[in-house]
Amino acid sequence: MGRGLVTALRTLTLLPVPGREAASVATALYWFPLVGLLIGLLQWGAGGLVNALAVKGWPAGAAAAALAASAALTRGLHLDGLADWADASVVLAGRERALEVMKDPRIGALGAVALVSVLLGKWVALMRLATAGGLVWVLPACVIARAMQVELAATLPYARAEGGTAGSFVEGAGAAHRVVVLGAAALLVLVPFGGLGGAALLLAWLAARLFAWRCRVRFGGVTGDVLGAGSELTELLVLIVAALAADPAAGVRTVGWAGWF
């Protein structure tokens, strides 16, 4: 299992991790929530440091620092997938043509719009959370996002007949990965973040099922780009849920639904 962690870290981050990789790359899927937690911790640290160094705090800068840390740590891999998925989603030709467009390294108009929209949405949500002292919500966002990658991989076939980078992960994923990863994500989210964390996890899972259905219809399954897009969209969803529950005006150092009822 330790080798699975090495594979997961090398796949999802640019961290120079020593050690041998797992014989079956699908073993790495079990570790995705934990790697997500690590990514979230580093984002939280980057944003928190900027906010702490600025006089009276700097929520906008903290949000930008968290986003920059995420992009740097993950090599922009998921953001690239988001752009490719968006470009392929609007192709009017058949499935094969859509997959060709997704594989094209160039970014089209819709891909650029998707990138800007998601990054702007995250920045606004993170800024609101930083103002309310809730920047820590990048942790469940990152954990849930990586768990939903496994959800997609375990419930969809690989779309490319010729194979691809993510093919080994998808083809090796099964019910066991799904159960273990969802259970681990629930534990990592529910214990420290309570009911709001549980609500975010449930909403993310429902959104992932809808996303999976659409990708099966449009592409015939999942690709590495689809997994990246799913991760980015899930992070955005969780951050928006948390931001909606934040109360920056009151200067509360927690995030919750108490004031809504």
Overall outline = globular
| DSSP summary: helix tally | 10
For the largest beta-sheet, the strand count, sense and barrel status come to: none
Q: What proportion of the residues is helical, as a percent range?
A: over 70%
Percent range for β-strand residues: under 5%
Return the structural class: mainly alpha
E-strand count? 0
Radius of gyration, rounded? 18 Å
Please write out the topology.
Blueprint: H1 2-12, H2 32-53, H3 59-73, H4 77-89, H5 95-103, H6 109-131, H7 138-155, H8 167-172, H9 175-219, H10 224-245
Helix pairs in contact: 2-3, 2-7, 2-9, 3-6, 4-5, 4-6, 4-10, 6-10, 7-9, 7-10, 9-10
Structural summary, described in words:
This protein has 261 residues and is mainly alpha-helical. The protein has ten helices and no strands. Helix 6 (109-131) runs parallel beside helix 10 (224-245). The model is unreliable at 257-261 (pLDDT under 50).
